[in-house]
Amino acid sequence: MNDPILILGGGINGVAIARQLLINGQSVVLVDSADIASGATAYSSRLIHGGLRYLEYAEVSLVRESLDERSRLLKLAPQFVKPLELFIPSQSRLGGAVAATRNFLGIPAKRSTPKPRGAWLVQVGLTMYDLFARASTLPKHRRRKLTAPDVPPVDPKRYGWLSSYYDAQIRFPERFVVGMIADCEALAKQHDVTFELLTYHMTHRDDATLRLEPQLAYPPAATRTLQPRAVVNATGSYVDRALKKIDVDSKRLMGGTKGSHLITFHPQLRQLLAGGGVYAEADDGRPVFLLPFGDCCLIGTTDIFFDENPAKAIASDEELDYLVAVVNSLFPQTGFSRQDIECFYCGVRPLPYRESGKSAASVTRNHILHDHPDQPWPMLSIIGGKLTTCRSLAEETAEWLAERVGFEVQDLGRDRPFPGHEDCRQASSAADDGEMLVGTQIPLAVVDAIIADEHVRRLGDLVERRLMLLYHPRLSRATLDQLTSRMVAAGILEAASVGQEVAECEQRLITMFGKQVAS
What are the residues whose beta carbons fall under 8 Å from the beta carbon of 249, sequence distance 6 or more? Predict the structure, then answer.
């Protein structure tokens, strides 16, 4: 077996890179200071898209790459990635052309709030989008009548034109990451190499040796030492902080922006979306999505520069009011209010450090592989990256490592299906009869299988990223108590710690997500 490559960060990019290396027979140790998919992966808009608005900033190559990967994911991960029709309402016919031209040419805007993008500009962008979608099987864009029965009835007093096009949605990227972890384990067996996943571990450095220290007291685990063949820093918005932890001297690399979303079970709004989504423009020119999300709706996002610890990013009252106002500008008949919010979430995009004076929207969404020379091992940091391009980023990273570590990339992974299931109830072969988890339709046998097979270490792992109970409308204390009892039985939680674990989970749900657990 070969010495492992160390990957820091268990988000969608770190796990995709691990999978790509294992496809090519390389041993991998994947480490995260928290749980897998617990950063920006879980706090995105959950779209697999080409980036229509990237065209306005002349990022044509990124749009091409994203559209190619959208087609690939629709084919290789259809259980996760599904087509979604999006509707774009416009207030005028010709507005916004001057501002869009300035953005395309990189000329600073003269006014802080541009005119709304008109129907002509939207049609030009959608025509380019269709042309770049070379491998797409999705329908082309269309002009639509506001009065058509199959379109969202946006406010006719505000909007006079409507266009539609297709992108794709991934409802639970958290479970997509779980599926990729399972594929990593299968690939390691197939190639007789090592794959280790160490969640809740901190990484420290002693010269050329790295120490991987467990952060949870139970079950007991020893500190690991490792001399890796190479190191990949895929910690997202934590890249600079991770570099400091392992004493790598570097200029500032990250300058992320904060994006907030809200979830609502408002029945009328879900009905008005007519099975599709709305891609609208707020009064400040910022694009906002209203998306179907199972039985509820997902609304986002904001884009605010954020320099603090990403773990402290929380949706503010101002952001929630901003998103509520967008809903009411589109569908005033709903009377949508803060009381209709079931929960919210907020993440920090792993964007490159920006030059002063640039707007948040103009910061590139492309990914960058940043080399750290003069280290005991080949090392790079991943700047940027998004859900849509996780596989192509992994391909590029594997090729970078192959040149420096000395192996051959024999398989680009472009045709390998992604395993796993969006619905946690399909995550195991456990029987779907018998006792159910309190307040849900999830069999306890399935819960036990997920605890055993999906690297669960804390109660929050189950609630937020395995069973997806964060989005359950009636999450109760009884449900949390039953989950902790199954964790105790599985030997991953001490009975004496159950009360503290539940209390910490409840506190996090209310603080970070505005999610109230029923007593």
Answer: none
In this structure, what token pair is assigned to residue 141?
A: 């864009």
C-alpha span between 436 and 453 (Å, rounded) = 19
Instruction: Give the pLDDT confidence of 211-265 residue by residue, as tens digits.
Output: 999 999 999 999 999 999 999 999 999 999 999 999 999 999 999 899 999 999 9
Answer yes or no: are the C-beta atoms of 402 and 232 closer than 8 Å: no
Dihedral, CA of residue 127, residue 64, residue 384 and residue 365, to nearest 10: -20
The residues with which 5 forms a beta bridge, in sequence order, are 28
Residue burial 161-196, b: 16+ Cβ < 10 Å; e: rest = bbbbbbbbbbbbbbbbbbbbbbbbbebbeebebebb
CB 250 within 8 A of CB 240: yes
pTM, 2 dp = 0.95
CA-based torsion, 324, 342, 170, 391: positive or negative? positive
Fold of 5-41+174-252+364-406: FAD/NAD(P)-binding domain (3.50.50)
Q: In 3D, which of 386, 400, 401, 394 has the Cα closest to residue 416?
A: 394
- Domain 53-170+255-349 CATH class label: alpha beta
Domain boundaries, the chain: 5-41+174-252+364-406, 53-170+255-349, 424-513
Residue 252: HSE in the Cβ half-sphere, 13 Å Cα cutoff: 8
Residue 276, both tokens: 């599709």
